[in-house]
Structure formats: structure tokens, C-alpha cells
Amino acid sequence: MAVALQKFSLEGKAGHLEGLVYVPDEMPRAIAVVAHPLPTMGGNMESKVAVILAKTFAELGCVALRFNFRGVGASEGEFTGGEGEEQDLIAVTHYAQEQFGEELPLILSGFSFGGYVASRAAQHLKPQHLILAAPAVGRFAMPAVSPDTLVIHGEADDVVPLSAAFDWARPQKLPIVVLPEADHYFHGRLTQLRDIVKKHFSGVAL
After folding, report:
1. Structural domain tally of the chain?
2. Among residues 156, 152, 203, 194, which one has the least CA distance to residue 174?
3. Is residue 96 in some structural domain?
4. Of 14, 111, 124, 142, which has the fewest Cβ atoms less than 10 A away?
């Protein structure tokens, strides 16, 4: 299956938003929207984790979008700490549904701060699947999530300690896939991250 990478743009509540979309040459199985890490720490849609997540969803046959939050790259506006970024993610999702079909299943995904934003947006968008890589629990007020959410965390994460992830997950009885010795950015472990996501969807009817 061939996949084309295309630029896209739309008007969000804070102005212009830019992004990239992987479009399969066959009927897509789902729409996947990926949120990047903290803008104030240099996070953008070219984050290696955000890129590998989007590529993985594309390999699974999804239309996969990654984009820059407001105030990042050519996206207009200013960082708000979550609320505005949630609006951006919702706007990109609605754009994708208008372009590729509202009937397609929806996957929301995010890395670090992007995981926090995706979890917030999930309360409104009700995706069929939520995939979080090293979500920024403890740093932001992470909401509760669906019990079938896939959470992947590094054992040696020095930005969001694994203990904080368990403190958030434990009251929800939420399982976490732990990568031994992996750091926050999954350096040297991106292939494993990809494989975990693919395994999660093996045999799953999107």
C-alpha cells in the first residue's frame, strides 16, 4: 500500500494551523490524529515520537495527521497550556472528518504534553481508540481515560517519572506498557514503540 505525504492547512480558533497528512492510496481504515510534545520546550510536529506514531498509523492503513499547535511553526496564536491546544486538536479532527469521512473510526494519539491534550479532547470527540506515549501526568491535570486506552511509558523516563504514570493509572485500573530502560523520548526505542502500537491493533476491527 502506497502512502502520500501532503501538507494541509485550516483556520482554527486562534488562526491558521499547519500540518501534514499521510494519505493511503486505498480506502482508509480510520482517521488518526497525533499531537506533539510541549511547545515551550521546543515540541513540534517533527518530534520523532510524533512522526513515528503518525507513520505507524499510516502503515496500518489510516489517514494520519500531525500538526503544529498554535504558536508553533507557521501555526498562528499563542501557547495556552492546554485549553487552546485542545481546540486546535478538535479543529484538525473535524477538518479530517470533513475531508476523509465522518463515518471512519477515530484514533487520537499524543506524546507527552500531546498525550495530555489528546486525553482532554477525547472527552469531547469520543474516539474509538486513544494511544498515549509518555503522557505528561503529574505536570498537567490529566483527565480519566477509557479503560482500553493504550499507554506506553519508559521505565527510565526522567521527565515524567514512571511512578507518576502509575499514580495516575492506578485509580483507573489502567494498564501501562513499560519499556525497560527507555527514556522520555524513547531514544533508540522508536521501533519498539511502533511495534507495540501495531500489536495493539492486530486483529482489531477499526
Report:
1. 1
2. 152
3. yes
4. 124
